């Protein structure tokens, strides 16, 4: 399918062109779009292929000086989205936004929340019991699913707080990890707890 799409796109001019400015980056892109290509020999269901040739211009510091650099990129997306509802430019945008999910979701979970491969497979080390046929098998592990859901719930609430109500995150280019560090630092410097002195005990009745 990939080779068929590339040969098909090479024989015709781009179907669409455009520019986009986002997060200090300037994109110039050309788009090719085709439908009805079989996914594979074993799975010939027709799919849609969108190809994008892009020139990305952004500023980088080189030896202390801010310089503009332009790099060229090629992207290929396979999708079943309808052409009328999702034009090629929108498919391209959705494809790029997928990296936000990768960075803000899975990457954050594995790097900062210990949600790694070994954590998900901790059930391998649980006790074993004998089945009806005499074979040894691990006992049902319902606790791991509960811990996983609690962790994902905490991650979702923390991310929602950072990106929605938190002014420090929205007004300044700070990472979630840095905001967490600032919150922890502020909690460590709370003033000592001040409580009123205990009232003197009432005299015993004569």
List the topology elements.
Blueprint: H1 2-10, E1 16-22, E2 25-38, E3 46-62, E4 65-79, H2 88-112, H3 117-120, E5 128-130, E6 136-138, H4 142-163, H5 167-171, H6 176-188
Antiparallel strand pairs: 1-2, 2-3, 3-4, 5-6
Q: If you had to describe this structure to a student in words, what would you say it looks like?
A:
- It is a single chain.
- The chain has 206 residues and is an alpha+beta fold.
- It is built from six helices and six strands, in the order H-E-E-E-E-H-H-E-E-H-H-H.
- The protein has helices at 2-10, 88-112, 117-120, 142-163, 167-171, 176-188; strands at 16-22, 25-38, 46-62, 65-79, 128-130, 136-138.
- The strands form two sheets. The protein has a four-stranded antiparallel sheet with strand order 1-2-3-4. The protein has a two-stranded antiparallel ribbon with strand order 5-6.
- Strand 1 and strand 2 form a beta hairpin.
- The chain is flat, with a radius of gyration of 28 Å.
- The model has no long low-confidence stretch (mean pLDDT 82).
Report the order of strands and helices: HEEEEHHEEHHH
Portion of residues in beta strands equals 25-35%
Summarize the biggest pleated sheet.
4 strands, antiparallel
Average pLDDT reading: 82
Strand order of the largest sheet: 1-2-3-4
Tally of separate helices: 6
**Rg from Cα:** 28 Å
